[in-house]
Amino acid sequence: FLRVYIDSPRGVDIEECGIISEKLSEQLDKHDPITQPYFLEVSSPGAERPLKKRTDFEKAVGKQVYVTTYEPFNGEKSFEGVLSDFDGEMVVIDQRVKTRIKKVELPYEKVASARLAVVF
Question: Where are the domains of the chain?
């Protein structure tokens, strides 16, 4: 498998994946860099894309996120809510608790994993 992920600030739809796949396939066939049979897969990171780098967090400010920590923070290891701020060191999540908003500030180095979260 040759997997290629494409992204854009405005998002990527299936038609764009198809167009890129066709153009990339043409170039791969023309230059033939892979000598054995393979499958070409072109896709986007998806609606629940992982947040791995600081720049990913910066781009996600204002969006719904799901974050886990390496160790309990105020008795919890998972947090879901709107990423309201990120200054490079602190991850600030506005969690809805019934009818109020609870602001949670997590040190970036304590984050084990993070991703965008889909709200239904």
Answer: 2-43, 54-116
Which phi and psi (to 5°) does residue 115 adopt? -155, 160
Structure token digits, residue 57: 């967090």
Single-letter amino acid, residue 112: A
Residue type, position 106, single letter: L
1: helix, strand or coil? coil
Q: Which of 68, 75, 118, 72 is nearest to 93 (CA)?
A: 68
CATH architecture of residue range(s) 54-116: Roll (2.30)
Gap between the Cα atoms of 64 and 8, Å rounded: 18
Cα separation, 52 vs 1, in Å, equals 23
pTM of the model as a whole: 0.73
pLDDT in tens, 10-47: 778 889 999 999 999 999 999 888 888 899 999 887 77
- SS3 assignment, position 89: coil
